[in-house]
Write a structure and sequence with these properties.
Arc Repressor Mutant, subunit A, six-stranded parallel β-sheet, Rossmann fold, 3 domains, rod-shaped, alpha/beta
């Protein structure tokens, strides 16, 4: 466990050491749409952000709505962001909102799609024109320079769609035997491509098509699904080519490997690079204003290799994400442990204080009880309510005709207490004289006082409220308490000295009366 903690702490230091300076930055990310490509890019940005404690991310997705994206950009700026990362939905419609952000002092990184304004801090993208051109060259090569093509465009007014179209057309222009028989307007989504191709297939012979080029993989897959409904078998389908080449089970690389697509072109997401450029800009380090990302063509020949590489990157990314989550969890546990330890310390302190107060209260209560027992049961300061009974008992002390079942109903009350009665004084003298005699019985005491056992019981009970046996035990315990305080006798010696035949029974009775063990009296 010690080595594990050391390892995790080392990782935490590595994760947090990348953070420079004490200023915190808020970065807004405005995505024009929500799809697998952008989800992957957002995940990369979140992963990169884990390495920098001095930044927070705020995401907004416009779902292909330029007006909504403009509103979201204004909202992000109003929230106090330091830098805006934006992929404009269309070339010109979102530009005013980006310009407003730039003019307000917010740094701006435009990525993937261009704006018709130069008001940005940096631009990060792949070469969409080159992607279209290379895909045109590849298709021409696969068709041996002749054939019938269908092109499905990206969102109208977006720079990638315009550039990919121009690059594709410039490439196939060198092959006069290649004819583009259909150019359908798409919006980057599979659903729209499916519907457009299905509508086209209702009025045209799609079996004459040799290749379909979609401006991204999703449009190419939508076209494939639509045409698959019109042909007799999959072997009658044309070639399908797209752009994006994402890793993962639903990505273009797997689709090429599985022969669903003939080819794709990797459009790198590089969310990690976007945040690195953002930090360079925010912290005043050198950066390039125009950054072009490298990309590559994906075919059946290299799909497996590219997929292995991407799977390894994904595996390491997942491991890193897991490690970061474990590190965050470890930090949270440390914080919780600190809080728990603080609360536990407070609880223990309060518990100890409560125990101390209870001990002092209990000790004081026991002392008071002891004093009251000694006073009432041995020194016998009689309560006022027994005065009349005392007088009547003492007036009949020699009357042996008073039977054991006789009662006295006198209830006269007196406000003041009186001192010990002669009868109790005599009882005390007899008991103290024979205190060390463990064989001393109530009959013996009664005989010494010239009374029957019943007479002795009745008179003692009426005067003290206790039986002779209880008074005898109290007297012995009281004497034992005094011996423990004033002598060096052991508990056993004291027990025998006050008439207990067994030290264990002495200890039991002592604990019941005084609330402590005899040995604790010496302490």
């Amino acid at each position: 466990m010690r080595y594990l903690n050391t390892f995790i702490l080392t990782v935490l230091i590595a994760l947090t050491s990348c953070s420079q300076g004490g200023k915190k930055y808020k970065i807004g990310v405005s995505q024009c749409s929500e799809d697998i490509w952008r989800n992957w890019q957002n995940a990369e940005m979140r992963m990169e952000a884990n390495f920098h404690e001095n930044m927070t991310l705020a995401f907004a997705t416009a779902r292909d709505d330029s007006q909504l994206q403009s509103q979201q950009i204004d909202s992000l700026v109003a929230s106090g962001i330091d830098l805006l990362i934006v992929a404009p939905n269309q070339l010109s419609s979102v530009s005013p909102a980006i310009d407003r952000a730039y003019d307000s002092g917010v740094l701006v990184i435009v990525f993937e799609r261009k704006t018709d304004s130069r008001k940005y801090t940096a631009f990060v993208s792949a070469d969409n024109y080159e992607m279209g051109r290379q895909m045109g060259e590849y298709i021409a090569m696969r068709l041996n320079g002749q054939g019938r093509l269908m092109e499905i465009l990206g969102l109208k007014g977006s720079s990638p769609a315009d550039e990919r179209h121009r690059g594709f057309r410039d490439a196939i222009a060198h092959y006069p035997a290649i004819e583009v028989v259909a150019m359908l307007q798409g919006d980057w989504t599979e659903e729209t491509a499916y519907n457009e191709v299905k509508r086209y297939a209702e009025n045209n012979d799609v079996e004459l098509l040799d290749c379909v080029f979609g401006h991204n993989d999703r449009t190419a897959m939508g076209a494939r699904k639509a045409l698959l409904e019109k042909v007799k078998s999959a072997s009658d389908l044309p070639l399908f080519c797209g752009i994006d080449g994402l890793p993962g089970k639903e990505g273009g690389i797997c689709q090429v490997r599985d022969s669903l697509l003939t080819a794709s072109y990797i459009y790198p997401t590089r969310g990690d690079l976007l945040l690195q450029v953002a930090l360079d800009i925010l912290e005043g380090r050198p950066y390039e204003k125009e950054i072009m990302l490298t990309s590559a063509l994906v075919t059946r020949e290299n799909a497996n290799v590219l997929l292995l590489e991407s799977d390894e990157v994904m595996r390491r990314a997942h491991q890193l994400e897991f490690l970061q989550e474990k590190a965050s969890s470890y930090l949270q546990q440390l914080n919780v442990q600190h809080i728990v330890m603080l609360l536990a310390g407070i609880v223990i302190f309060l518990l100890l204080l409560a125990i101390l107060l209870f001990y002092l209260y209990h000790r004081n209560k026991v002392n008071m009880q002891r004093e009251r027992v000694v006073q009432n049961l041995w020194n016998l300061e009689l309560p006022a309510k027994n005065i009349e009974n005392t007088k009547r008992v003492e007036s009949t002390e020699g009357d042996s005709t008073l039977g054991p079942n006789s009662t006295d109903s006198s209830d006269s009350a007196v406000e003041e207490s009186i001192g010990p009665s002669p009868f109790i004084t005599r009882f005390k003298e007899v008991v103290e004289k024979r205190m060390d005699d463990s064989e001393l019985s109530v009959e013996d005491i009664a005989a010494d006082m010239n009374l029957s056992r019943v007479q002795l019981y009745r008179k003692v009970k009426m005067l003290s409220g206790s039986s002779p046996v209880e008074l005898l035990r109290t007297a012995r315990l009281n004497r034992g308490y005094q011996l423990l305080l004033t002598t060096d006798k052991t508990v056993s010696e004291v027990a025998y000295a006050v008439g207990f035949s067994a030290p264990a029974y002495f200890t039991k009775c002592f604990k019941e009366v005084y609330g402590m063990l005899p040995g604790e009296v010496k302490k």
